[in-house]
Specification:
Rossmann fold; 2 domains; 8-stranded mixed beta sheet; 23% strand
């Protein structure tokens, strides 16, 4: 596999911060997020529920609404800062050069519009008006995502399709305008394993054919291992580790990454209890002082409880945030 870091960056996130407000104050959900996405790569963004993965995806595209607020940072798409654009300019980019695939197709698709109407709207919003060419493009895109009888589907409503079929339609809409960056927010979580595998295989093929960069957000390391060139691990709003898929899975440096890998059911010998990380991710308004993972970390010290670790790296794109990173011998 070609190292994506030898390609050109298409999206650069620098110091992005997002907070959520309530009556007691403003609570950080994303802390100084730094990410670089390269042309044609798949970046897996993983972590438990509440780690900030989905908020990161929405923040990158500027889709944070009240009570949330993006308070700092830059999001550079092909060198232009999305945070400096007005809403109209951003709207023209979203759904065209930048697309998002949401987790639940029932809330993504409009129940009172046919599939054809919704796909047509996504195209005409970004320029094409010829009716026959529009229809042909819709049919071709539905075919690409594995939908049978695409002509018939155009006249159907979302409730007439199965869950897997609806998610394929959502993916088709995201691909209609040949985006350069796609953010997929756990798009297969609500599907059964067979349909999930089919859609992942389709996404691999479509992403490879289109050359788009893909950020795949998931809590499932098994899915990300199949798809991703690189993996970024999130915890409590921070990227705690990032590297190539082989590096992160075979030689984790952060104890949280090690805990996620140890909790994968398929890696536990038959008859033995499932391993798990004790405790749970902290809520926004109760982030621990120091390293946010220290209450759940078996190797935490006084330094971990008093000081948030700064990012460390090997100079070649491998980064981790830990005062006591796992050594190569310990990871083996």
């Amino acid at each position: 596999m070609t190292d994506p870091r030898t390609r050109k960056p298409v999206l650069e996130v620098e110091g992005l911060q997002t907070v959520f407000h309530d009556l007691e104050g403003a609570w950080p959900a994303i802390n100084a997020l730094d990410l670089t996405i390269y042309e044609g790569e798949v970046l897996g963004l993983v972590g438990e529920s509440g780690s900030g993965k989905s908020v990161a995806g929405f923040s990158i595209l500027g889709l944070i609404d009240t009570p949330g607020e993006i308070t700092a940072g830059r999001v550079l798409f092909q060198g232009k800062d999305l945070r400096e654009m007005d809403e109209e300019s951003l709207r023209k980019l979203r759904g065209a050069d930048l697309s998002m695939i949401f987790q639940d197709p029932l809330t993504t698709l409009n129940p009172v519009l046919t599939i054809g109407e919704q796909m047509g709207e996504a195209i005409t919003e970004h320029g094409q008006a010829d009716a026959e060419a529009l229809r042909r493009r819709c049919i071709d895109t539905l075919t690409k995502v594995g939908i049978t009888s695409p002509e018939e589907r155009l006249s159907q409503y979302p409730h007439e399709l199965s869950g897997g079929m609806r998610q394929r339609v959502v993916i088709a809409i995201a691909l209609l305008n040949s985006p350069k960056v796609i953010i997929a927010d756990e798009p297969t979580t609500a599907l059964d394993v067979t349909i999930q595998s089919q859609i992942i295989a389709e996404m691999q093929r479509l992403q490879h054919d289109s050359g788009a960069a893909l950020i795949w957000i998931s809590h499932d390391l098994g899915v990300v291992a199949e798809l991703a060139d690189r993996i970024a691990v999130m915890y409590a709003g921070d990227i705690v580790e990032i590297g190539t898929t082989d590096e992160v899975l075979d030689r984790p440096r952060h104890p949280y990454t090690r805990g996620l890998l140890d909790s994968v059911p398929g890696d536990v010998p038959p008859g033995e209890p499932l391993r798990q990380i004790e405790g749970s991710a902290p809520p926004l308004n109760a982030r621990p002082f120091g390293c946010p993972f220290h209450p759940r970390c078996a190797q935490a010290t006084d330094l971990c409880r008093s000081s948030d670790p700064a990012p460390q790296g090997d100079g070649a794109g491998r980064i981790w945030r830990c005062h006591h990173p796992i050594t190569a011998q310990e990871a083996a």
